[in-house]
C-alpha cells in the first residue's frame, strides 16, 4: 500500500509482540519505522499478534488503521493528522450487532464483499473460520451486522485444506480479473490456498434470468483516460474500484447502451496511483466488471 501518498508502494506489518511497523520505499531500498509511535511518542502496542489493515474507515479522506490482536479485539485507530503521514493516539473497539467483536487472534480485512459499494469487515480467527460482518451503514459511518461464517458453494465453511486449519488469515480481491471476489487463505501450516468466487445461484423456479450486463474498457494499459462501453437492460450503477474492491470513483446510474469515460481520478479529483483498477456495473441482481491498468 502507499502509506505516505507519494505514489510508491510501501509495506505495513504487525508482529508477534503486538507493535505496528511501516517500511517506506525510496529509490533503492525500504526504510523501516519499526515500533511505530503514537503522537505522545509512546509505542503503538496492542499486546500481541498485531494484524493491521489501513484504509479510510471513517470517511474523512485520511488513512486510518484497523488492527486485530491476540486478545480478540478489532481496534480502530483514527488518523489525527494527514494522509501523507498518518498519526494516531487512542483506539476505539469495533462492534458488530451492538457488541464488541471478540475473536481470539483475530485478523481483520476490510473489503466490499457483497459488492454494494460499502466496505465490509471480514475476519480470520484462531479456530480457522472466516467470519463476515456486513456493513449495513455507510463508508463514513459503518454499522456492522452480526457475524456470518463464510461458506463454499457446497455449504462447507471456508477453511484451510492443509494439516492445520488453525489461525486463518485471509485476503480478498479479484485474483482472476472477473467480477466475482476471490479469497486467498492461509493457516498455521503455512500453505496459501485460493478460493475462487462462485456464480450467483438461487433464481426462483420458472422465473427467467434477467438479460446479462455487458461491459468493456480500453485502452489497456491507459495513461489516464479510459473509454467504457456499457449495456444494461435496466438501471445499473457504474463505478471504478481499486484491487481491494473499494470504490474510488462513481460514474453514475445508466440504462441501455452508453459510452462513459474515466480520467484516472477519484471522486475528489485526485489522480490515482498506477496500478490495476476495475470498472464495475451493478444492476438487476448482477455484476459485470472490466479490468483497467493505469500506467502513466
Describe this structure in words.
There is one protein chain. By secondary structure, the chain is mostly beta strands. 0% of the residues lie in helices and 40% in strands. It has no helices and 21 strands. The strands form six sheets. Strands 17, 18, 19, 20 and 21 form a five-stranded antiparallel β-sheet that branches. Strands 4-5-6-7 form a four-stranded antiparallel β-sheet, with no helix packed on it. β17 (214-218) and β18 (226-241) form a beta hairpin.
Low-confidence stretches: 199-207
Distance between the termini: 18 Å
Tally of strands: 21
Percentage of residues in DSSP E strands: 35-45%
The shape, in one word, is globular
* Helix vs. strand class: mainly beta
Major pleated sheet? 5 strands, antiparallel
Figure out the total of helices.
Answer: 0
Q: Tell me the series of helices and strands, N- to C-terminal.
A: EEEEEEEEEEEEEEEEEEEEE
Helix fraction by DSSP (H/I, runs of at least 4):
under 10%
Global mean pLDDT: 87
**Cα-atom radius of gyration:** 20 Å
